[in-house]
Design brief:
alpha+beta; 5-stranded antiparallel sheet
Length: 210
């Protein structure tokens, strides 16, 4: 099980026929956090006539959008489409438009709002959040080299290594691969290592996934 979201807020500005489209994308998990994003945009860009938004929440698979006074379907929906097409969730995008004096027409608005959101997401760090388990491996020093080699081909994230009387390695492994990796390492060591597993929720595996 996995999902994609963004690591941190990111804001970018698109200029279209002198109108400014300021897109702010933010990681969110609740409707209350979405409301805070919209309020922040109102406070930051008081000259804006419209504060268009769209968001997708993983909890209950909720998605919403608002055109905020723009012609129906020309603003919030294009922003939501961009978020959906990138497969993102737990993301809110607010696009504040400061009017530049030139009417864009329906097609121009659809293009501008969608591009503003896409531009902000393009600069945001995308995270691949995967259900995983924390694995702790304790082995002697003679097996440590073989352990490193065995782990090199797996999408694991080593979080800690301690060298005392023995070597203790703690890592994150994808939930669906945890038991098979555990069994493989025990076989490889002829049962000389100890391995424990604990649930670790969802973590970002974007650095190790192909």
């Amino acid at each position: 099980m996995k999902y994609k979201t963004i690591a941190a807020p990111c804001t970018r500005t698109l200029i279209e026929k002198r109108s400014e489209f300021i897109a702010a994308v933010t990681p969110v998990q609740t409707a209350e956090q979405v409301i805070a994003c919209i309020q922040d945009a109102h406070a930051a860009y008081r000259k804006a006539r419209h504060h268009v938004y769209a968001y997708v929440l993983r909890d209950q698979n909720i998605s919403r959008y608002s055109d905020d006074g723009e012609p129906q379907g020309t603003a919030g929906l294009p922003v939501l489409d961009v978020i959906r097409k990138q497969g993102l969730t737990d993301v809110c995008c607010v696009v504040s438009r400061i009017f530049g004096g030139v009417l864009l027409g329906a097609n121009g608005l659809v293009r501008a709002y969608g591009q503003a959101c896409a531009q902000a997401l393009r600069d945001a760090q995308i995270m691949e959040m995967c259900a995983c388990r924390s694995m702790t491996i304790q082995c002697d020093y003679t097996f440590y080299g073989r352990l490193q080699f065995a782990l090199a081909s797996d999408p694991v994230i080593i979080t800690d290594t301690q060298f005392t009387d023995a070597v203790t390695v703690t890592l994150l492994v994808l939930e669906e691969q945890a038991q098979s990796l555990c069994d493989r390492l025990i076989d490889l060591s002829n049962g000389t290592i100890t391995v424990s597993l604990e649930d670790a929720g969802y973590r970002d595996f974007s650095s190790v996934l192909p």
